[in-house]
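Summary for the funding panel

The consortium committed to producing paired sequence-structure records for every protein in the target list. Below we show the first two records in order, beginning with the earlier of the two.
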Amino acid sequence: MTQHVINSQLVRLDVDFGTSTTEVINNLAQIVADAGRASDANQLAADAIARESKSGTGVPGGIAIPHCRSEAVSVPTLAFARLTQPVDFSGPDGDANLIFLIAAPAGGGKEHLKILSKLARALVRKDFVEALRTAESEDALVELVLGVVNAEPKKASSSPVAATPTAAPDAAAVGASAGEITRIVAITACPTGIAHTYMAADALTQTAEATEGVELQVETQGSSSVTPLPAEVIAAADAVIFATDVGVKDRERFAGKPVIESGVKRAINEPAKMIQEAVDAAKNPNARRVAGAGAAQAASPEAAGSGLSWGKRIQQAVMTGVSYMVPFVAAGGLLLALGFLFGGYDVAGGAQAIALQHSLGNLPGNEVVIDGVATTFDRSGLALYLGAVLFATGQAAMGFVVAALSGYISYALAGRPGIAPGFVGGAISVAVGAGFIGGLISGLLAGLVAAWIASWRVPRVIGSLMPVVIIPLLTSLIVGLSMFLLLGRPLEGIMSGLQNWLSSMSGSSAIVLGIILGLMMCFDLGGPVNKAAYLFATAGLSTGDEASMKIMAAVMAAGMVPPIALSLATFVRKNLFTPAEQENGKSAWLLGLSFISEGALPFAAADPLRVIPSMMLGGAVTGALTMATATTSRAPHGGIFVLFAISPVWGFLIAIVAGTLVSALAVIAMKQFWPNTAVEAEARKAAVAA
């Protein structure tokens, strides 16, 4: 028999679940486990708390909807608590006392997400929320919720949502003049695609329905399904709303349309304001528009203010470039390391020649003629040949690193028309010796120029050629001329100076650099500062010089410390950590050994003032020790599993062990002498339960 997503066992009315989000989520997770819906309450709580740490799940009306996918969950489940003591879930109107925990199986299909999205949509209805507040029994509340999640969906209309004259209070001031219709299309999307995506969609839709002179259609880019807006609806739209926390899929469909952009929660909290801004943008010829053929970018201060600032866009663009670059680095760097493993460290001197001149049927000896000169290698035969092939493949992958960085920075700023100029700029950066610094500059230059050219107003006959011919051509020309004539030599000088400085470092100066890199790697555990240090190390790794390999070793070792240290601390002083943190500690050590710094994020998000300084202290020790022992790494990733590419191994291991012990002792001391009230409350509760 099919289980309902909620039953009376999963409901608690008028209870005190503590004073923090962690306590409330832990209690709800325990309810789910007690009902047989989850195998491990601690794991479910940890997954929900990790999601909560990204952004609070409080929504208007004193409601919160913590939610997650979890391996511990066996069936789609809703748990509900009506609290006597409201708790802060970062909602727009204060603390929340109506709490739904939405628990989805990690590997589940999409049907259950459709059910859960119905609940999220109902939470924007005032009558439904009032019924939740006044329900007199668990069974009555279950019947109320099931009436929503089991309801048949409304048939989709083939036309935009029509406005009605029954205006809602917050929508009364929104709309066009009598007789005028403003057609708006919107995209809503949140990282998990379970709740906020659909709540934002319904908040906008209900406001539009209650607003005279506005027609709205929304495309929800959530987890359950994505039904694209019809092309004719987009073509007829006067303005676009992007209420998203992630990238908009197929953004170029909206090219040229006036756009209002924000995070998804603003559409839930301020739907009337966003619709009014969209109406105003539709009437403003200088409004910021979606990039693309004939698309005008922000030309006025008020238009620019309606979207992301240029500083934020550039920051996001650089992070996008780094994220797309990392697979090239990881694949190429590990292939280089494997090439050394099979072919010996001298294979780098002839990998291309060996791979091209020989085959499985014509294996090389230990002496190979390269460019007319006989070169002797330590190894021969199949080992040397495979090593050369692996190394040459890795070199090919690493050859794309700077171009990928530049190309995808440009892509993030200008969309598809920016890809080709960005890659061209990156390739030129390599050719002139500007390296990854040149890649950063050329990517930003290409993206900004492409976005500027896309803002030109051109005849329709030329507009169709803009994204595929004119923008890539003109932008590539401008970037190429700029790099060769203006920027190339200065950037090459900066890169050469940096490399010479790194190569000359020894003694105390190298140790200082190691400390700085260790601090950066542990500051935000996978965030922009961490990624900047990693980019610095991996981009330099492609040069193959000794200083760059020392930097790579320091970065990787320091990045391994936080998860291992926190795992150790949870074993040594279990009572200083919440049950969720104790559960995370059971697996964090493996993430640390694999060089996944993000394994420490749940700890840092829950208690940043104690955790982050402790981790930075250990990271600084590790970075200093790797530099002091002249440890090098030829691999950009892999942690303990690429020891074959690290030398000396003992220096690497000593640095990690020392940093781990320092961080573990520091975080224990911080939590011991500066107690966490939330942890103490949970410890008292566990003692009473025992």
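The next record, for a separate protein in the list, is shown here:
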Amino acid sequence: MDELNFAADFPTPTREQWLTLVEGVLKGADFRKKLVARTHDGLEIQPLYPKAENASRIVRAESGPWRVSQRVDHPEPAKANELALLDLEGGADALTLVTRKAPAARGFGVRVDSVEDLDRALSGVMLDLIHLRLDAGGKGREMAGMLVELAERRGHDLSALSLDLGMDPVGALAALGRLSVSWDEAARRMGSVLGDLAQRGFSGRAFLADGRPYHEAGAGEAQELAAVLATGVADLRALEANGHTLEAARDALAFLLVADADEFLTVAKFRALRRLWAQVEQASGLTPKPIRLHAETAWRMTTRRDPWVNMLRTTIATFSAGIGGADAVTVLPFTAALGLTDPFARRVARNTQLILLEEANLWRVADPAAGAGGFEALTDALCEKAWALFQEIEREGGIVESLARGALQQRIAATRAQREKAVATRREPITGTSEFPNIREADVTVLSPLPASPLRRDEEQEDAALRIEPLPSTRTAEPFERLRDLSDAHLARTGARPKVFLANLGPAAAFTARATFAKNFFEAAGVEAVTNEGFSDQDKLRQAFVESKAKLSCICSTDEIYVMHASETAETLRDSGSGPIYLAGRPGESEEQLTRSGVSTFIYAGCDTLKVLSEALEAACD
């Protein structure tokens, strides 16, 4: 039976026709302000893209599924080994060994002081059947030497192993703020290490250009890409200057990008790095080869409050990294921000990948984003922006010199400030934390709570030949989490949470929308909202407020009811002993009258939520 193509009977609409219809709906509003979003790097994201023409497909070094990598970070080598074997038996085919004092260890990490410790941590792990990546921070050279020695002791042919030794002196400098030797000496050691590894038959990736220090500091996608490119180029120069060909230096490099919950930008970022590095290779006189690209889900996006939502975030991030062409993905367990993760959280992290690979079959299509207008446009825009930022770093003398001057830190700090403002005003809401919080959430289990100050600058007093201002490691949810911590302390001290009384006016249809908004708004700081079925009688409202024992109150209803009753309600609440009185909605023309009546603050979408809640919590806990 012939297929009927009904679409062929209709003319293909043009973008101009679509824009005409959109302008009619917008009724004179600015199209760019209403429908065009912007990233923190300043890139525009259009609401609609045409099909991309003549798109080039990205190519991975190996076809097939990406590697499912699990973190090994328990401090005790024997326990770390037990967890690693469970992961491998449960479907992982790669491990990321995070050692003590590495920035990514967050105060934990396997204690490896000798080859014997490493042997215990990897007991029963068949190095010739899995992929292994070391994550040792400033101890990278020392740990890499131990791993190679262990492999030789076990009789392995180094050339047959899939190893990433993860040495990244630039990343360690950025994260920790110091190098024990000068950069020239660090470069000399890099060359010496690679020469020794080559003589011993090692053919894996010795060095890593890591995007995590920049992403955790608040960098935009283009800034992260530029820093990774600049790190890779610094490594190439260091190795070439110390006796290695550019081809050998290139083959010794691997890359790591962070995957977060912004699907489109994450996919575009991973695709962009492959194109950008190929551009570096061509500029260096090399024939481009597929890079080894690792992904790790973002520490920056993890939350301590309602941590179950982290499962959704890491699922989107893993999907995006896989679609974007990652060779191996490491998923941070959903309780990572709370402490050392238990086997259940590790299993969820592992199964997040297995479901996407084996049930969703994401790996069966190579570069599925190729030709999609939105992805291709974002990839192109990221390439252009990241290359310009990379050139800026190069003009400053390269990434080490840029970090030494503080120039790169300053640019990332400016982007971080934009991001913090967007979070504070909830233009970038955090589900379960700043939006739809759950103040009665159940506890989750961790093996050990996260230290109050996870090790990052832990050897401050050690001699260092090179010191810089380290990049901070931040999570975007932290400001709201600090407010919730104050609420928890008040609960522990008094037996009750601080409260806000919702003065709902009129019928449910009138106040429900704004009462729901106010409840979510205040409970983001742990201020419990005391709600009701609404009032038309001021005496009943007064009685209900007194019985609630709340120190704060918030008037909720429609603008029309506000005109008639908001002022007298504010006066009733003020006379009944209410502290700060809030009104849900913008003040409009009645602001002066409402303020005289006792309304202290107006809450609405886009207001400085963090500032208002900080003041509210202080008043409620007084």
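Regarding this second record: The longest strand covers residues 253-259. The first helix runs from residue 15 to 26.
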